[in-house]
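Example is below:
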Amino acid sequence: MSPTATPEQAETSHQAKRSAALFSVFAALGVTLFKLITGLLSGSLGMLSEAAHSGIDLIAAAITFFSVQVSDRPADAIHSYGHGKIESLSAGIETVLMLGSCIWILAEAIRRIVFREHLSLTFSIWPFAALLLSITVDFTRSRRLRKIATETRSEALEADAIHFGTDIWSSLAVLIGLIASYCGGRLKIPQLELADPIAAILVAFIILHVTWKLARRTIDSLTDATPPEARAQNRELIRELASIDGVLSVERVRTRRSGPSYFADVTLGMPRNLTFQRSEQITAAATAAVQKHLSGADVVVHSVPIASLAESIHDRIRAVAARSNLNIHDVTVQEFNHRLHVEQHLEVDETMSLSAAHAIVTQLESDIRREIPNISSILTHIESENATIERPASLERDRQLEVRLRRAAQAFPEILDIHEVLVTRIHDRIQVNCHCTLPDDLPMSKVHEIITALENAFKLDCPEVNRLLIHPEPATDNRR
């Protein structure tokens, strides 16, 4: 059950797993009883070993039923990653039980071969019927368990499906051993009388092979090894993550599986001058890329700020300020005698004292010099950042100031239009706001130069204006 599954999907998945596990329990119970009774009546060690094997199957099926009941419980305060590991634990218990049955079967078979005990078998049709029934039941439940395990990504059901699938081959081995033993007794061929214990040994090795496979899978799951399906797609996943716009490097990708759920931990190198919103967009894209390969995975993305090769001096200066959560603007860098000289504006709270603001500036300039050693001097203009909402005494369009602003704009042929002029008077301060239309293809450096020149010309003509704010607009987006 994935973390992103809806409650209806989760309930459907749980019911399917529970139904398959319960069917397996009843099937194992019936087959075990039939084999045990048949083995006791015929005296066949191969049949008794099969009964023991089926008994282990019954215990394993019961444990699986219990594990699927618990594993789909939602995460809680104690198990924040959910209860999926209970399926791995049940597979581990099943592995131990299967290993114990292997040891018993091998010991009993070797004892019969060495001491020539219980080699003569009583012929009966029932062992053959029991084995054929076992093969039919194992085929049916293995197929059903494998189908549900694939649909629900259940580790416990998948282990049972593999287990019961190999039971078919062990039953065939015992069937051949019984036929050979009966033929040896009838034809008086002593070598054939050993076929039953030899078949038991073969069954033990089949169980041992399955046990080894389950043990490896269980240990990998309990030790949080990378799932095989994630391992197979790791290179492609890293390539997709690296191709996301804004990702400079893929530092680490870790994946693990807990029951049917996947968990992924991804660390990405991103430009340090990214905005928080852009970083969130990249995180969403990385999550989608992981979930494309591991459906429904719970993904955690960590970002590591990196100085990219494309960073300019201005970007590096802003990055240093951003690291201290400081807001700077109007950064200019000049070069004299192969040394850099920086001017910048820093906004601080309007209620901050000069000594506190100066301490912040001193630390910022020190950090910038450490980051960019070839900067020889820094001049920081400290500005107060308004923290209160201003309430204007009057708000009106001042016709005379508007006329003088338009007259000043006529000196700049690039300015196509001045509109939405707004004059704000707050006590003894006057602020003028306006929109300015410029050609679409004008570079921003030229736009800034023209706006600055217009501000200076207007303030020279109207010294009573404290501030002029100009919003530039392209000609194609002039929404007057």
In short: Confidence is low (pLDDT under 50) at residues 393-397.
